[in-house]
Amino acid sequence: MTTKPVLSWLESNEPASLSRLIDWLKIPSISTDPAFKAETARAADWAADHLRQSGLRVEILPTGDPAGSGHPIVLAESDAAPDYAGPHVLFYGHYDVQPADPLELWDSPPFEPVIKPAAGPVGERIVARGAVDDKGQVASFLEALRAWKETTDQTAGGVRFTVLLEGEEESGSVNLDRFVRQNADRLGKCDVCVISDTGMLDRGKPAITYGVRGLAYTEVILHAADRDLHSGMWGGRGPNPISELVKVLAQLWDADRHVTIPNFYDGVRKITDAERAEWDALNFDQTAALKEIGLGPDADIGEAGFSPLEREWARPTAELNGIIGGYTGKGAKTVIPSHASAKVSFRLVDDQDPEKIAESFFEFCRKRTPPGCRWEFLNHGGGDPATVATDSPTLAAARSALKSAANGTEAALIKTGGSIPVAGMLKKELGLETIFMGFGLADDRVHSPNEKFELDCFRLGARAHVLLIDELRRMNSRS
Ligand code: BES
Ligand code: MN
Ligand code: MN
């Protein structure tokens, strides 16, 4: 059969598909905030129902230790057609979202999705927390499953899928590692993982992402006196933990913006000449990207000796994500606080190890302990970097599906600076490769107020997933 009826089902049922997505986006599944635990579970139930309606066997599995302390994982399976000879595909996505704050910067409430005209000359977009990250992208896959079921009465077009939807990606996937290990025999039967949680090169320019960075997320607290002090009496006479903390943190980079932590760059893979050439050929416009976020060309700063794309895709960084200390209310208060703290994270590349990096950073701080002060260190976890194979038959199938979905535009091979911890876990624990086939745009405001997903991108995603299923059914090798 041809895919024509399946693709036209998508077109004629689009209003219903969008209203389903809107229902899902209305559920505030903020995984990091315990106040939203019940809502997060409701978002899992919602996805489970959707998958069931498309004919898959679905389980909602508790996570955490004690069991149920984490957010549930939705695990669904489709039976393959008797003559199916393609790979067993693990589809991964996440149904949790980032917190929506600051609420006052949203033009419409984050959990009341609206469809609005796009900023450009054509099209529309859906605006809500989770629109592109990741409910909208997962929905493009769910609708493809539905389209196959509705038009052929065959679950997932006869392709063997295991679908894993996580509810803790945005809070560091803290229970996923254990889940993967405990379900290694089931997940290990899969041949390859497909994830739709990344971006495209640009509007109308589809891409496959072959690498994500890793992350080590820490917090350091510098303690001084056992109480807050009057800065008139104590200023100049004892340690101010805020001043001392920022002096230590400022030493994290040298004048060329290389990270100064000893052994930080151990294991970092060199960018090959071939990669350099391929990335240069993408003609990435850094000046335009800076302009989009309100900055001029002089803001093109970062580690010396590397291009902007190289810095995002293949170089590790140290970032301060928050500094807390002293008086932050209205007006003035002359105080020397008892302590000050900072959230410090590191984006990592192959083959850096997040645990080692966090430990080296703590050691860096210890060596610089300001007189009279004491450190407290917290490791908030993170994830391994992952670079995936670009030569597999499944990847070729995905590229071909993307190309037809985009009416002949070839998919680019790109990397991203973001992190998706599951990819590293699957590789390390099960030897699984991942294919990142994502549909976000650089201006989607991921994690920000007014997050959006262009309907054109949603459509492209749904079509690409329909066509990927078709490619898979026609494959005859397991890889
Ligand atoms: N979907 C993103 C990762 C991403 C962002 C890929 C931008 C491509 C472009 C994911 O949901 C995410 O936000 N990951 C976190 C991971 C962290 C919480 C462990 C990240 O990258 O900060
Ligand atoms: Mn995501
Ligand atoms: Mn995210």
Verbal overview:
With 479 residues, the chain is an alpha+beta fold. The chain has two domains: 4-212 and 385-473, Zn peptidases (Aminopeptidase, 3-Layer(aba) Sandwich); 214-268 and 316-383, 2-Layer Sandwich (Alpha-Beta Plaits). Helix content is 33%, strand content 20%. The chain contains 15 helices and 19 strands. An eight-stranded mixed beta sheet has the order 1-2-6-3-7-18-8-17, with helices on both faces. It has a four-stranded antiparallel beta sheet with strand order 12-14-10-15. Strand 4 and strand 5 (124-127) form a beta hairpin. Helix 2 (14-25) crosses helix 4 and helix 4 crosses helix 15 (455-473). The radius of gyration is 24 Å and the shape is globular. The two termini are 24 Å apart. Residues 94, 133-134, 169, 197 line the site of one manganese (II) ion.
| N-to-C span | 24 Å
Which spans of ≥5 residues are poorly predicted at pLDDT below 50?
Answer: none
CATH architecture annotation of the largest domain:
3-Layer(aba) Sandwich
Tally of DSSP helical segments: 15
The general outline is: globular
**Oligomeric state of this protein:** single chain
Overall tally of structural domains: 2
The structural class is alpha+beta
Radius of gyration: 24 Å
Q: What's the CATH H-level superfamily name of the largest domain?
A: Zn peptidases
Please write the CATH class name of the largest domain: Alpha Beta
> Largest beta sheet, briefly?
8 strands, mixed
Helix content: 25-40%
Strand order of the largest sheet: 1-2-6-3-7-18-8-17
